[in-house]
Amino acid sequence: MTAATTTAPLRASRGTAARRGKKSWSKFGLVALTPFALFLLLFGVYPAVELFRMATSEVQVIQGGFQMEFAGLDNFSRILTDPDTLPVLFATVVFIVGAVVSTVVLGTMLAVMLDRAVFMKTVAKRILIWPTVVAPVVVSVIWLLLLSPTIGAVNKVLLAVGLPEQGWLGEPVGAMLSILAVDVWHWTPLVFLLVYTSLQSIDTEILEAARVDGASEWQSIKMVVLPMVLPVIITSAVIRLIMSVKAFDEMFLLTHGGPGNATNLISLHIRTIFFDRLELGYGSALGVAIILIFAVLGALYVLAKKAVTGRRTSNA
């Protein structure tokens, strides 16, 4: 009997077992995915369909129900002619850029510094992480007590040292800087935690090899550490981007979007249109527009990531 005839039954049995395993796994996968599919349909697909339906309709609330009349793209064209659109977009872009850049840079710096620290690492980590676990409403109250023009502790300190009071929340520039400071204080620890966790997974032998080759501390950080944690830094930036667009609590409680439209972010603007003006169709169109913008940005991010990965693979 040849080796081929000996191994043929074995291969056949393995193929049969593999097919049986694949079939059983397929059934189990369907059962396991059923709750997720139902959840997605109920809380994802259905609201999205209704949102798009409202965005293309003139919606009125009559006797506790919605009465919709098809309006085509009128609500979307109104976005381009609304005088509030440009100020809201400008304030939103300024806030997003400032918040994302500040939190990512500061969080990465703190993570690298603490990773190199020798003393009191545990205490420093607890102090740095603390702001993230505080509820946004509590954060707003804390900063309102600090920045209020009448009872704010910051202005009282300025007066105590002979400096004039500042309208932190009453002037356009001061209000934007104030909400940026609140957001950076609140969410920098999140970036710090993500980057610091990634730093702990770096093999110490790589850093030791860099030191043996004569690299200074700064050169090791620049040429070894940061490139290795770059994917985590990019992920942190994407998370912060999404969080910045959704930012609402602190801005609503501190400035209500004022003064004027200086801090009227898109989330506050949509809330005003929905609940104060009751323009449900127009508010839905704004929501759909934001979703489409994020879909485009997400597609660009995926394409850029694939391009970078392919370039690294070809270079290797």
Key traits:
about 325 residues, mainly alpha, MetI-like fold, two-stranded antiparallel ribbon, 2 strands, disordered N terminus
Describe the protein.
The protein has 316 residues and is mainly alpha-helical. The chain has helices spanning 3-55, 74-81, 85-116, 121-129, 136-147, 153-160, 172-200, 204-212, 217-246, 249-254, 266-276, 280-315, and strands at 57-62, 65-70. Strands 1-2 form a two-stranded antiparallel sheet.
Task: Summarize the structure in short.
The chain has 316 residues and is mainly alpha-helical. Helices cover 77% and strands 4% of the residues. The protein has helices at 3-55, 74-81, 85-116, 121-129, 136-147, 153-160, 172-200, 204-212, 217-246, 249-254, 266-276, 280-315, and strands spanning 57-62, 65-70.
Secondary-structure blueprint:
Elements (H helix, E strand, L loop, with lengths): L2 H53 L1 E6 L2 E6 L3 H8 L3 H32 L4 H9 L6 H12 L5 H8 L11 H29 L3 H9 L4 H30 L2 H6 L11 H11 L3 H36 L1
Antiparallel strand pairs: 1-2
